[in-house]
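User: These chains co-purify. Model them together.
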Amino acid sequence: MADVEDMKAKDLPRRSWKQDPDRVRAEIIGVARAAFARKGLSGTRIEEIAARMSTSKRMIYYYFGDKEGLYREVLAEAYRRIRRAEEALDLEHLDPVAALRQIAEFTFENHAAQQDFIRLVMIENVHAGAHMPDTEEMSGQNVSAIRLLEDIYSRGCEAGLFRTGLSALELHWHISALSYFNVSNRATFSKIFGGELFEAKGQARLRRHVGDSVVRFVLKSDRLPEFDGHSRD
Amino acid sequence: MADVEDMKAKDLPRRSWKQDPDRVRAEIIGVARAAFARKGLSGTRIEEIAARMSTSKRMIYYYFGDKEGLYREVLAEAYRRIRRAEEALDLEHLDPVAALRQIAEFTFENHAAQQDFIRLVMIENVHAGAHMPDTEEMSGQNVSAIRLLEDIYSRGCEAGLFRTGLSALELHWHISALSYFNVSNRATFSKIFGGELFEAKGQARLRRHVGDSVVRFVLKSDRLPEFDGHSRD
Amino acid sequence: MADVEDMKAKDLPRRSWKQDPDRVRAEIIGVARAAFARKGLSGTRIEEIAARMSTSKRMIYYYFGDKEGLYREVLAEAYRRIRRAEEALDLEHLDPVAALRQIAEFTFENHAAQQDFIRLVMIENVHAGAHMPDTEEMSGQNVSAIRLLEDIYSRGCEAGLFRTGLSALELHWHISALSYFNVSNRATFSKIFGGELFEAKGQARLRRHVGDSVVRFVLKSDRLPEFDGHSRD
Amino acid sequence: MADVEDMKAKDLPRRSWKQDPDRVRAEIIGVARAAFARKGLSGTRIEEIAARMSTSKRMIYYYFGDKEGLYREVLAEAYRRIRRAEEALDLEHLDPVAALRQIAEFTFENHAAQQDFIRLVMIENVHAGAHMPDTEEMSGQNVSAIRLLEDIYSRGCEAGLFRTGLSALELHWHISALSYFNVSNRATFSKIFGGELFEAKGQARLRRHVGDSVVRFVLKSDRLPEFDGHSRD
DNA sequence: GATGAATGAGTGTTCATTCAT
DNA sequence: GATGAATGAACACTCATTCAT
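Assistant: Joint model of the six components:
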């Protein structure tokens, strides 16, 4: 690499590792994710992102074309991240009830742990989903989440544990709603009702409630008693 | 007064209701609500608001000081609206189970009917709740929502219908989460999973699910059968 | 005065004295003088003046036409004021040296006591004197100041005390320069050299210096000794 | 580099000295100095400055942040300029009397030659000195002016020529007052008393008067005769 | 690939002033 | 005479983006 030689010859010592394009891209995306998550698309200044990274503003345009291009990449990468975390779940060996509770409470925790992701989704919804990644890329990843639920739900139905007539998508919607709202609306909810629910103890209760809620939602009524004990505080 | 007659007679369009500050304020807020709801605080251009109203841009500054002042008023007024709708509910005569289902499904419908409000809350949460109305004004209105749930819940407990150990605030959180998510995340959810749930049929199912979910969440397990029939499609 | 009767009949208790146009004008001018003196012509907001007075903004336009008209009146009135103070001087009975010193030190003190006037003159000079009162009105008042100096100076020359070849206008220029600068440049001078000269002790020294300076400037050299003692601290 | 040749060759007028930040800054400051000196801080329109320079309005914000930042720089640079002119004075070889007269008359002329500077100081005093440069930068430059006077004054005292008990700062104040007023108040003074003093002949007289005044102010009385001849017209 | 300089098209905001009552 | 409402023209300032080196 003649370039590297040239650089050494002319010092510029702090540039050495920046020549790695992937690393530059990754740094930009990282900084941009934080910025967009905090202030939204129009609320974020390109200059602000540039100021927080070690390369220059020009690189943003070099790699991502424009602000919107950068935002799209940030959003796509955020979806990839969260799905990657979900893939780590291993529920095959659990009975349907436990698996369903597990998936619900895991989602609750995963969302709570990735607040930047939730904020990006909030922002993207404000923009009516105009910058969502390609359907192909998305559905590939997300269908697996549904398939997992489908598997659990049908196992539960076959075992006579779950009431029939529901869809895995509806269960996903249910779990997502509770887990998402827990992060998305902290600010306004706290301002109105106080922040107790979002402190450690409150979160533990809510997580269990989310598990309870989904399980109770699908269980046949004559099967309910067996888990009722869990939901007491 | 001949003038009034003339005005009714149609012309003098620019003067007809000038010098009526309440009306001017109301028009500005109405236009601004739509604009802010669509594009957020920083995404909305003051000129765009001005273009859609019959008064000039200058009046926004006359009445609201600046863009943020206008946004604050829009948000406060949106909260007032939604609470006003909630006050119309009359649940005193219903048994606890029916009342709870009623309050849940009503919230679901009320949120679905006031999408601008939901979008404003989304936006405000992106801004970390920095522009929320005075706690005094808010809590006065919102505590009543909680008190209603408290009343229903304690009636249900006393009747031996509901399991104990929950709080009205948690029930409110539960109902809000499902009803809110149904509006807030339509865009991204549809892009990933298709829009079926948000069409008329899907919404009807979801509405019932929300009722089921909350009722099943609180009912003692030996009381469940009696409403199980309702939740089938 | 039918008006007064009407007003009593319809209460409006706090307006009673505002109906006196002179008083309204005087109040406006007083408030405006302070405002213009502090912030200049373009730096002063009409609204700010209005806020500090008991009548409405509309009255400014009613009485003075526009902002510039008000400023002109304020300036003219300020000149009238300062001349009025000067007229109180009675120097006829003093010998020329004492009278000259008296006029110099009085001017120094008078300027120091009317800082708003000095600031208005500063501002007017920034505007190249574009709003100065009619020459007729001005010269009538100011020529008297010159005539006073002329009288003292010619008495001094006739008595063989003063050197000849100077003009009363030059003496006036001399006295004015020192007295004016003492007020006009306090801010910048203090920032550079500290504020000592503008505290009580420093001002007393400067006042005497101004007297010394003018007297020494005109005295024939063989007449100097007799006043030299005064100028020691 | 052929490019450099081409540029010298005259054309490419818009590009010729672009990308030369010092030059751009200098041009902006030059234009802004004239504008602020003429109309003050609030009276000057940024667009007016922009219209008179070869770069765009945007550059003002790029280099100076905002209007006030530009004004500050203009003011600081104006102080630097005037001090630079003063440094050219070489008074070491002159006797104290001649040196004092020299410094006084030079100041008079220097101020008269740099009216923009005086006007900026006027304006800054209207603003109560709120935008004055750092004390460090200022005092470094200005203390030298005082030290020069201190040197002359103490030499004069030691030689038995000057009366004691004065301070160099007071002498500086005296000289500044006369020299400053001569520029600052031309407009109003002329409007009242006519402009004769500010024409060539009048200025020559005033310059000599300023020299006379300061010298007479410090000389012991028995030393006066020797210079008295100079002050006759 | 990398950097500071440069830019056009807006963007929120302010001002003196006038109108309707 | 008096008041709050209304206004148009302009104002300082910002933004994403591109250019020159």
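Chain A has a mean pLDDT of 87.
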